[in-house]
Amino acid sequence: MENINITNYLCDFGNVVVGGSKKKSFRLTNVGKIPINFNFDKKMLGQAGIDIEPDKAVKIGPNSSQLFTVVYTTRKNSKYGRVKYQIPIDIKNGPTYTIDFVANLTIPELSMSNDNLDFERVAVNTRKIVKIRLENLREVNCEWWFYNPAPASASTGNEKKKEVENFSVFPLSGMLLPGQRSTIDVMFIPNSDKPFS
Question: Counting CB atoms within 10 angstroms of each CB, which of 7, 42, 134, 175 has the fewest?
């Protein structure tokens, strides 16, 4: 005779960044009058990317409980969206309970109001500022920073360096909460033989 599944419990990891991991804890309590012995299906846990500690067979006495720590680790090639893993708790000589491990797989994503900046005409010895709006479109925090790549070669190093020095970005970094917007200033100063004052 097959074991009867009594009920399903839920362990929700919430939003998990693809390629990352998240930890949760839960406690199982024996509300019966006799000790219970049970374990988790390690093969199913491994396939789901879930690690539970303690991972060996557990014995819980009457009116006692056991704390479990669960780590869910995602793969870098995981698809975005809602995932659900049903892991049975096999109780020796007893019914079966199931824990539903669920998560929403996502990535940080930043949207910019402009892909290309056009400063149009800028007079020498003047400066011009263009504003860019940044928006976090995802469900997790998005940390960003302004990055200037190193010159491609030594022969073009000085030229590249001068181009970079013509631009100034403020702020240089930041973090946006889900759905939050922010504005950054990009300033352009044309080349001039005279120092800018």
Answer: 7
Tokens standing for residue 59: 């014995």
Rg of the chain over Cα atoms, rounded to whole angstroms, equals 28
pLDDT tens per residue, range 106-137? 999 999 988 888 888 888 878 888 999 999 99
Reduce the DSSP state of residue 163 to 3 states and report it: helix
CA-closest candidate to residue 181, choices 132, 119, 117: 132
Angstrom distance (rounded) from CA 53 to CA 37: 16
Whole-number Å distance between alpha carbons of 26 and 53: 11
Task: Specify the pTM.
Answer: 0.73
Does a cis peptide bond (omega within 30 degrees of 0) precede residue 171? yes
Tokens of 58: 């557990």
Q: Cα–Cα distance between 66 and 184 in angstroms, integer? A: 50
Q: Cα separation of 38 and 27, whole Å?
A: 14
Residues with Cβ within 8 Å of residue 173, at least 6 apart in sequence? 143, 144, 145, 146
Q: How many CB atoms lie within 10 A of CB 9?
A: 13
Which tens digits make up the pLDDT trace of 29-58? 988 888 988 888 889 999 999 999 988 778
Q: From CA 107, how far away is CA 138, in angstroms rounded?
A: 7
